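User: Hello! I'm new to structural biology and keep hearing that structure can be predicted from sequence alone. Could you demonstrate with D-3-phosphoglycerate dehydrogenase? Please show me the input and the output so I can see what each looks like.

Assistant: Of course. The first part below is the input, the amino acid sequence of D-3-phosphoglycerate dehydrogenase. The second part is the output, the predicted structure written as tokens.
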Amino acid sequence: MKILANDGISKSGILALEKGGFEVITTKVAQEQVANFVNENNIAVVLVRSATKVRKDIIDACPGLKIIGRGGVGMDNIDVDYAKSKGIHVINTPASSSESVAELVFAHLFSGVRFLHDSNRNMPLEGDTNFDGLKKAYANGIELRGKTLGIVGIGRIGQATAKMALALGMKVIAADSFIPQVDVKVEFFDGQSITTNIVSQSLESLFKDADFITLHVPAQDGYIIGEKELAIMKDGVGIVNCARGGVIDEVALVKALDSGKVLFAGLDVFENEPTPEMAILMNHKISLTPHIGAATAEAQDRIGTELASQIISILT
């Protein structure tokens, strides 16, 4: 039985699938050619990450498709309900990349509060001629310890982010329409742990109370953060989005950055992917990464082996 891993899969995932008797094809097929490739090669399973879309047209055109797998959490690039209505299994790996995304959130937070994203641009240009000037420009850093982190969406990734914040000595607050409260357990290297209860509050109160805000929500029909929401936030707030593009009004964000209302933003995802707006890319107050939240070796290994385990259990 053949599997097309169109957006790639880890070596450990390939080995697990091959051991289970499957043939894994990692050829990158263009979006418009996916259906033809699936049919011509008798593909039973299509695995994607965030790049390839599996919509109704592909589902209808590929009657031999048995499983659609998403390496990661969000499945907004798959017509999940329609696929299921056609008897196709739809699987994902919600727990595999939580820590990787959470660590990237803190990479952006640390970059923002110590101006690393801007310093790394200017030191190569001016470090030898304006060292003292740059030192003065980046001298007003902020510590994360003791500050309040507002987490919008306290699911698996939100909880992983909360653990790291608590370990740093931050206060954590959360807003989630589906999770009223959650126990977050912070485990240490020696087997000890602490557990704290986080009770969900309103979005409005979170926006008012948080020093830093991080989003962990699926794709939305509208903005979660727009002009109105930015207006009620603290002056000098920092905002990180490693979830989905389109949940922040980028025009309003740039205005808030330019006015000083928002101190910095960290963006891993964008309204227009894969061609983000130049106003975002060139803004010196934004720390930027190209949608790499789950792109660690460890996460990809976990994703690959978890997908393999689910596929083997369904088809054998």
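User: So the tokens describe the shape?

Assistant: Right, they're a compact way of writing down the 3D structure. Reading them back into a model, for example: The CA atoms of residues 139 and 259 lie 20 Å apart.
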